[in-house]
Structures are given as structure tokens and as C-alpha cells.
Amino acid sequence: MTAAKKAKKSAAAKRERKERRFTPEATYASRATVYAGMIGALALGAGVYAQWLREEPLRYGPYLLGLGAVCFAGSLWKGAAEVGSVRVGDAGVALESGGDLVRILWCDIERVSIDAAGKVQIKGKEASLAFPADAHPKALAWVLSEGGRRVPDVMAVKRADIEALPEPKEFDGELVAVEELQVAGRHCRATEKPISFERDARLCPNCGEAYLKDHVPKKCLTCQAELGTRAREA
Ligand SMILES: [Zn+2]
Q1: Cα of 185 from ligand 1 centre, angstroms
Q2: Of the chain's two ends, which shows fewer C-beta atoms within 10 Å, N or C?
Q3: What is the pLDDT of residues 20-41, one digit of tens each?
Q4: Ligand 1 centroid – CA 211 distance (Å)
């Protein structure tokens, strides 16, 4: 192998970031979806009775049938589509919704909590994301375990809630490579200068904080992890 090829290979290895992708639990359906499904089924039943089983069909029979069918089909469709997959790993937490991916790096997370409705709320400096804990118990367990290690100060989840979760296991979720991280446009945490080119950026491997390559501190200013030569190319 030539020197140039070798160098290229090690640069590529440096960039590798991994994360776990979790699809929502198959048994999960939100309460609204369950109610819509129940109402739909009831209306369908009443509609069938009003339209065909009664000796004199009721005028509103067809409407009941239509309403029931719409609610029922809607609940089935929504049940599968309303909660997206969650990703947890080197590049923070990301939520897939439709074709979009909302990502919040560990360094940008201000608070992780569970609200009264049972939703995991991840509040970031610019974006925020939320998903029902019931739909993603394993993803939540991983958010708390990785977040607790990387940025413990922003974790605001009660001990009782943590204890109710499954233990994070090595083979949870699907291990995927992190796609390109948006670096250009971020500001160096040490100098506050904007980072215009990806090649000038160095990232904290622990929390994802960005620095200009000539201003990498010994310790990450956001998460206190040892940096120096451990800072990675974007
Ligand atoms: Zn850091």
C-alpha cells in the first residue's frame, strides 16, 4: 500500500462515527390513536346496523359508515406513522420524522427530561425534539446511559423513571454510521469565531463540540473531556 493510500485510509477511519437506530416498539399506539380506532370501529358497527340490519334503514347510516371507515383507517395508518425512529450515539440524539432528521448534538443539549404526558423532551440550544417514552424505551435507556456519561449535567430524569427502563444492551437497535455532520456555520467554542470550512474544524469525540483546529484546548470547554490530539476531524 502506498503512503498516500495509507494516509487516506486513516483519515477516513478518524471520521467514523456510529449511532444506534431504534424503530418504535410495534406494540406502541398512542392513546389518541387507540380512541380514534375504537370510535371508528363503533361507528362502523352502528353504521352497518343502521344501513343494512334495520328493517327501515336510517338516513344517517351511510354517514356513520363513512365516518367509521375514515377513523378506523386513519388510526391504523397513524399508529404506524406518528412516531419516527430515534438515533443515539456519537452525534447526539436524532429523531426521524417523515423524510426529515432533527439532530441535536450532545454539546447542544440543554436539558433531557420526561414530561407529565410521558414524553421524552430533549431541549437543545436551537432545536428541540420529543418522543413518547412508551414507544422508545430502549432508545431512552441509551439516551440516559450515553448522556449520563457524556454530558451528565443536563440529564434531568428521575431515578424511578430510569429504574423502570430496560438495561441498555450491546445489540440494542441497529448500528449505523453517522451521515455527514453539518460543521460549516458553527462557531468555535474557544474563540467564538465562525468555522467556514469543514477542514478547519476539530470536534470533541465525547460531546461533538466544534473548535478551530489551531484553538483546540487541552480539555473540552463544554464537557471537560480530554481533547488535545483526541479531537477529531469533522
Ligand atoms: Zn466535549
Answers
A1: 18
A2: N
A3: 999 998 777 666 677 777 787 8
A4: 10
